[in-house]
Specification:
Order of helices and strands: HHHHHHHHH
Number of helices: 9
Structural class: mainly alpha
Shape: elongated
Largest sheet: none
Strand content: under 5%
Helix content: over 70%
Number of domains: 1
Length: 201
């Protein structure tokens, strides 16, 4: 995957960065840490400019997240009930949990969208409930762009700091992605093992 990312950046430049960041937010296993970190290395080597790179990365991130937001908005959470009733055991969710989540999201969703832009995997997953809750489109885009821009500044800075030490970047991003995935899987297995449906009156 690393070679493909490198080739895409080399061939596409800023457009390649925007494309990679868009699909990274549609298919989370592609790490934004590596994409923007490599961009930062290119800034350090004089092959890219900081501001165009930041713009391309943030636009790509927002576009990818908007895909999941629009899917959720088009579907609507009310249409999930038959699916939750059937598969709630494996999702560790009751329909009441979904309603509580949507109510919370309608009150505080903009801050959740912003904060989770700094979390691997969750930064993409949170766009779907934002759409399901019919979060305002403009508000979603503003908080997504804001969070993505700050995150991308940090990643570009890390790549710039590492400079030509590409192996160090790869050694960092690889274990980070694996560790995050392991934690998420572990939490899910624990929830499935301990989950009990709510008692209804």
């Amino acid at each position: 995957m690393t070679e493909w990312i490198l080739d895409t950046i080399a061939r596409g430049g800023y457009w390649g960065i925007a494309f990679l960041m868009a699909i990274e937010n549609i298919f989370p296993p592609i790490p934004s840490e590596l994409i923007m970190g490599l961009g930062g290395i290119n800034v350090a080597n004089g092959q890219m400019g900081f501001w165009p790179l930041l713009f391309a990365g943030s636009v790509g991130s927002t576009a990818g997240n908007y895909v999941w937001y629009q899917i959720g908005r088009s579907y609507g959470y009310e249409r999930l009930k038959p699916f939750i009733d059937r598969w709630g055991r494996w999702l560790t969710l009751d329909w009441e949990d979904v309603e509580d989540m949507i109510a919370f999201f309608r009150r505080h969703g903009h801050w959740v969208v912003f904060a989770l832009r700094f979390s691997p995997l969750l930064r993409t997953m949170i766009s779907l409930p934002a759409g399901l809750a019919h979060m305002g489109r403009v508000k979603f885009l503003i908080y997504t762009i804001a969070g993505s821009t700050i995150w991308n500044v940090l990643l570009i800075g890390a790549g710039y700091y590492l400079g030509s030490r590409f192996d160090e970047l790869e050694r960092f991003t690889g274990p980070l992605a694996v560790g995050t995935a392991a934690i998420i899987i572990g939490v899910y297995v624990w929830r499935v093992a301990t989950w009990r449906p709510r008692k209804r009156d």
